[in-house]
Amino acid sequence: MVKNPVLTAIATGFGTGFSPMAPGTAGSIAAALIFLAVSAIGPSAPWMAFAALVPLSFAGAAHGVRMWGRDPSRVTIDEIAGCWAACLAAPHGILWLLAAVLLFRFFDILKPWPVSLFDAMEGSAGVVLDDLAAGVMAAAVLGIAGVLSGAR
What we know:
Layout: H1 5-11, H2 23-39, H3 45-68, H4 77-89, H5 94-110, H6 115-119, H7 123-149
């Protein structure tokens, strides 16, 4: 298979997948930093970026699976999409953003149901959907914590 440099860049989370240590965490940190920058544009910008990010994740993951096999650690665009989902639910503030990253990684690594259900799926759907599910679970926890703390 011939490498497509654009799809390879997308699949690897614009290079975070080549991190020698914890590429998923590197992708998640990059997601939070980019989220912070995009949020400065305006309140709808992160949502519009997420709407573009999800289909890009499926395309990048499909390319990564073709290049490197089932759910390779080099593919981090799925972590970026999942972490972004968690960041969308975080109340404003750097500590909340840090909590979004940590909660997302917690659910992504632990893989409770339904994350484990999606993780068992073959192909790019499983690669992306398990991370989106982990992001949604983190978002739920952040939403509840935000309400209970009065941050929402």
